[in-house]
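lol forgot to send this yesterday, sorry. struct tokens for the thing we talked abt
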């Protein structure tokens, strides 16, 4: 096996090195892509209306936190969430309807038939609902963005998409997994792979003139580009039979001649401008997700598009599909390496012959094996450097060991994908949505900045830009902006209250005594309830809900976490309502 296996590793290693050479040439010598828009240019670009599509299936545990956090963080005014849910997914529908009441820019898009079908089918129904919304409200969305229920959208992400959409039909914002502890090896594999792919590979795709595949999240499409897709796909924007409709659209738009751009990974406002999320953290869930990726990208892509395009496009199609063979062979390579190392170590103890070493020394294989060893070592260094750029060197040290774990995941995913694909073809069945279970980070893990209060007050029409700028220039250092605006007579107390509520995406409204669970109301010490003026009233889906007349502070959250491991959610009520509830239940 050594000769054919070594030849394959050599070819694949040289293939990977080509990308490193092209990247170094463009990034270091030609310094491509260094002219990025400034913050002023991003702010001055006229805000085009953006529709954010979020397809759901059994996401009732995470979608509320996703909307709440992103609505508070996004530094863009002219956008709306269109959230798709299936008719037989009642828990998710209930959560989205509640979000509709709390946020005027959130809209439920009901898929009329039972789910799950495919993510693309859900997205198509969201598109239909968006068009109905446009007709009823005489509004037109110039840009459509796709996101998932676990996404943390960077505050400036929509500005970047809006800026580049003026000249490109598709704009892809980088995707960077959230950092997790080093012992979560499976999630660490995603950190390593996305670090390399979204700092190097995606840029090289663009520099070589090939297609930029959509990542499914953080992708912005202009309506012109989507209408061109609809024209060639019988009115369907997203191909329902595709398991990776994002990759399909990226390739299709390129073949139609639409300009695409991958936004460089830049550090702005104390964080990378990227979509952050938690990826699968167990071996089995990672295999499940990657099985869908391999089936959609490698097998369905091959079936639907063959080897279309220029020779550069064909090269990238080869790279996207070589894992069908390369992933299983990587595990075989690992097994032979472990065997050879074990035999060498044992041979030093019992003086037995190292058969593997003797075979290598007696043939020309040693030159080939040394070459593959050098390429493999170089590949590990490149991956570690890419990972260190985002997660630091302490995390990157584990990249070589995580590569072995990744080989096992990718190998099983490739074999499972081939099996499932072949079985579906033989049985003439349509592929179903291999849904990944999503998790959303806890409030303490969300480090992204809130949308500025002044921006919220302007968007609500409570103050003008001129009034805001005047307040900012005259505000004393020891006085908060909101209080200063009230003192100047620009806003009233109730408007400040509403502005802060919107900024922090808090629920508000009177709480009836019938909604309070007696055992929950007495679950916190009386002193804590009295000092922080927050009454717990229900526990639901891993969340502890508290109501009070005060805005939650980080100090309050920290103190409350001493008494519960549940995620804490707040609802604002009036002081009179709070007094009524505490009198009855405490």
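and heres what i got for the seq, position by position
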């Amino acid at each position: 096996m050594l000769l054919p296996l070594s030849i394959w590793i050599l070819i694949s290693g040289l293939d990977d090195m080509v990308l490193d050479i092209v990247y170094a040439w463009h990034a270091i010598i030609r310094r491509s892509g260094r002219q990025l828009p400034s913050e002023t240019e991003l702010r001055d670009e006229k805000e085009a209306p953006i529709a954010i599509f979020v397809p759901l299936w059994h996401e009732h545990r995470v979608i509320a936190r996703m909307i709440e956090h992103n609505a508070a963080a996004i530094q863009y005014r002219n956008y709306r969430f269109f959230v798709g849910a299936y008719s037989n997914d009642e828990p998710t529908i209930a959560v989205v309807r509640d979000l509709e009441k709390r946020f005027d820019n959130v809209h439920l898009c009901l898929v009329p038939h039972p789910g799950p079908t495919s993510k693309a089918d859900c997205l198509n129904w969201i598109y239909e609902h968006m068009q109905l919304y446009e007709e009823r409200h005489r509004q037109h969305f110039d840009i459509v963005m796709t996101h998932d229920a676990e996404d943390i959208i960077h505050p400036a992400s929509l500005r970047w998409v809006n800026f580049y959409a003026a000249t490109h039909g598709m704009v892809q914002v980088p995707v960077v997994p959230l950092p997790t502890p080093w012992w979560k090896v499976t999630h660490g594999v995603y950190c390593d792979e996305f670090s390399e792919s979204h700092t190097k590979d995606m840029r090289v795709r663009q520099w070589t003139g090939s297609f930029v595949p959509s990542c499914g999240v953080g992708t912005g499409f202009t309506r012109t580009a989507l209408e061109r897709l609809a024209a060639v796909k019988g009115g369907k924007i997203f191909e329902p039979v595709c398991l990776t409709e994002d990759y399909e659209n990226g390739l299709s738009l390129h073949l139609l001649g639409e300009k695409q751009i991958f936004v460089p990974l830049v550090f702005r406002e104390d964080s990378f401008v990227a979509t952050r999320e938690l990826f699968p953290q167990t071996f089995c869930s990672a295999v499940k997700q990657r099985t869908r990726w391999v089936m959609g990208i490698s097998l369905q892509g091959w079936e639907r598009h063959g080897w279309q395009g220029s020779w550069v496009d064909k090269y990238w199609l080869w790279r996207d599909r070589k894992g069908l063979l390369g992933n299983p062979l990587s595990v075989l390579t690992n097994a032979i390496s472990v065997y050879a190392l074990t035999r060498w170590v044992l041979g030093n103890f019992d003086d037995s012959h190292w058969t593997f070493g003797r075979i290598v020394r007696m043939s020309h294989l040693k030159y080939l094996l040394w070459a593959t060893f050098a390429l493999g070592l170089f590949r590990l260094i490149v991956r570690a450097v890419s990972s260190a750029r985002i997660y630091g060197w302490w995390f990157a040290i584990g990249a070589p060991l995580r590569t072995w774990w990744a080989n096992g995941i990718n190998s099983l995913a490739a074999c499972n994908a081939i099996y499932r694909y072949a079985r579906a073809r033989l049985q003439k069945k349509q592929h179903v949505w291999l849904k990944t279970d999503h998790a959303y980070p806890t409030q303490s893990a969300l480090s992204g900045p809130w949308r500025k209060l002044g921006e919220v007050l302007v968007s609500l029409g409570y103050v003008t830009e001129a009034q805001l700028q005047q307040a900012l220039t005259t505000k004393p250092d020891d006085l908060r902006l909101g209080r200063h605006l009230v003192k100047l007579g620009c806003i009233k107390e109730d408007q400040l209250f509403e502005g802060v509520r919107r900024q922090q995406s808090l629920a508000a409204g009177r709480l009836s005594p019938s909604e309070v669970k007696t055992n929950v109301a007495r679950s916190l010490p009386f002193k804590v309830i009295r000092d922080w003026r927050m009454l717990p009233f229900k526990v639901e889906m891993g969340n502890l809900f508290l109501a009070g007349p005060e805005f939650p502070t980080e100090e309050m959250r920290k103190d409350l976490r001493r008494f519960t491991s549940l995620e804490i959610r707040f609802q604002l009520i009036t002081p009179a309502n709070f007094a009524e509830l505490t009198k009855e239940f405490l």
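The chain has four domains: 1-31+191-201+281-435, 39-173+218-279, 452-503, 507-585. anyway ping me if u want another try
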